[in-house]
Amino acid sequence: MFDAIASRYELVNKLMTFGLDARWRRRAVSDLRLAPNSIVLDVAAGTGDFTRELHRQGQRAVATDLSYNMLGVGKAMPDRVQADASKLPFRDATFDGVTCGYALRNFTDLAKTFEEMARVLRPGGRLSLLEVAEPESGLLRVGFRFWFRKVVPFIGSLVSDRAAYHYLPASTAYLPSASEISAMLNRAGFSSVNHRRVMGGLSQQFLATRTL
Fold first, then answer.
1. Is 167 exposed, middle or buried (0-12, 13-18, 19+ CB in 10 A)?
2. CA separation for the pair 141, 132 (Å, rounded)
3. What is the CA radius of gyration of the chain?
4. Which residue ranges make up each domain of the chain?
5. pLDDT of 60 higher than 80
6. Strands 190-198 and 203-210
7. Which of 185, 191, 195, 186 is nearest to 209 (CA)?
8. Nearest one of 58, 62, 69, 122 to 89, comparing CA atoms
9. Nearest-CA neighbor of 103 among 138, 130, 81?
10. Partner of 17 for a Cys bridge, out of 10, 21, 58, 89, CB 3.0 to 4.6 A?
11. 142 versus 94: which is more confidently predicted?
């Protein structure tokens, strides 16, 4: 499915979020608070939005994704590896940081994926994750549900793949609660797990540190 939508993926993302996703990624990268030229793994990199932002902020980024076409379409991604996130082909403690944007609900084994993220991070390394959320405010929640469940599939049908953009909003059903995700990160080997809602709950971010 992701291979099929690769060519229009970034366009639809910008339409879906009015370009706000770029601001959220900038914040997520800066929140890593890593020294310049640190090595960061971008898991489920897709076409490279997070990867390019890491480069812009002075980091050395390695992109990995299961979708070959996503990686192929991506620009300014000199280091890219096709791989399953639950079986990352990297040595222990290779990276200073790990990022992942809007993909947690697509992993078939989220617990194992978190364990792999922890394994490839050095002790004290930093993790920054972005994922969709649903606003808590009643009015915002109603508007969000209409946009995400009705308008987004319609936009996707017009400019990309109909089936994919009906799946993606529905895939939030596979996403554990924030407290469950935080607990999973703790069990995987992360400490100082912090969760925050972004822009009234339109998105959410998890920050964590690899246990020393």
1. middle
2. 13
3. 16
4. 2-210
5. yes
6. antiparallel
7. 191
8. 62
9. 130
10. 21
11. 94
Residue 4 CB neighbours (<10 A):
14
Q: In this predicted model, what pLDDT tens digit does every residue of 109-153 receive, in sequence order? A: 999 999 999 999 999 999 999 998 877 777 777 776 666 777 777
Question: What is 2-210's CATH number, 3.40.50.150, 3.40.50.1110, 3.10.310.10, 1.10.3630.10?
Answer: 3.40.50.150
For residue range 7-51, what is the model confidence (pLDDT) as tens digits? 877 777 777 777 788 999 999 999 999 999 999 999 999 999 999
